[in-house]
Amino acid sequence: MTDIVIDIKNITKRFGPVTALENVSFSIPRHSIFGVLGPNGAGKTTLFSVIAGFIRPEEGSVTVLEESRMDHLLGRVGILPQDALFQANIPIIDQLTYFLRLTGWSLEDAREEVVRVLRIVGLDAILLREASTLSHGMYKRLALAQAFLGSPEIIILDEPTAGLDWRSAKTVRKTIKKLQENVTIVVSSHNMSEMQELCDHVAVLERGSLVAVGPVDEVTGTSQSITIVLNRDLSPELTDESISRPGIKDMSQVEEHTYRVFFEPGLSPEEVDRTMHGFQKFIIEKGITLRSFQEDNRIEDLYLKVTEKEGDHP
Question: What is the pTM of this model?
Fold first, then answer.
């Protein structure tokens, strides 16, 4: 069994004079949560549609679970489109049961499976309600349940938390993380904090072209950083002393009383924790109040770095 579940080779897709994807190639490893990033118009939804077999590229190929035809993958791939829709006046259990029946499930097995996935997304108590009665957050979780039907090996999620309040979005992210042990998940989002929390691999698209791809630690650089806010600025001597501490590579002032502290590349999570703890203790011992600190979002840094090269977007 190969460790690659989706292999994308030299994909080019055009819509009239517009090139939505141009010579895009990368592979998605098994059991990863693989994030696809990019501004509006970058080609994310087009790429998902090509992977899912909804549209054909002019050039290149896509292999999913070692198959090149989506009709050979029935039940093995679950998909959440960006704007999934359901029949308004039909109970949600009947709609999801119908989807499974179309793929050959018996009525009894389909009902059991629907109850199982609705329980995963926290909707099992309202399975007899019609879709029109659901809140926006519930509707989004229903769409997520649809993608989970049948225990697929791959789940493709296009903006799964778009429009959700923070509590509902947190529930969705928690659900996605739980599935990783048994499923490969491909997800897009404009929320960089969300992608930092979820993803172990990322690909960044910019105007249809691939500009970065790989494990998060590799494409963002293994050197992590934190941003700290103090009650006053550091003297040059204290700044130099801070940089000389074990595990710290550099430090730069971002704005008044605010600094970014960079760790040495290659530190393990435990070493990063020890370095952070030691640095906090050092600052306090120098009589400086540490008002706040936060780990920087490396995916956001990567995104800004590679997309700013192409100029500002409308």
Answer: 0.77
